[in-house]
Design goal:
This protein is mainly alpha-helical. Helices cover 59% and strands 0% of the residues. α1 crosses α3 and α1 packs across α4.
Length: 85
Amino acid sequence: MTKDEIKQIVLDIIAEIAPDEDLSDVKPDVRLRDQLDLDSMDFLDIVMELRKQHGIEVPEEEYPKLASLDSCADYLEPKFAALKA
């Protein structure tokens, strides 16, 4: 799975959690919480949806690695690859 595909998965999850957010201009290198009106519960929902929809566990101490779209892709790419292995 490519990093762009992973970014789209994250955006799709955000669209489900926060349907009123405009995701058309999300900058990949800026913290998601700085760009979007996401609170800590929304962020937890993102983590829960990653587990529910894709079987990916994100330990709490690694939540900061999901700050931006770019960091999400960097962090999640090996996890998606491990699922396919």
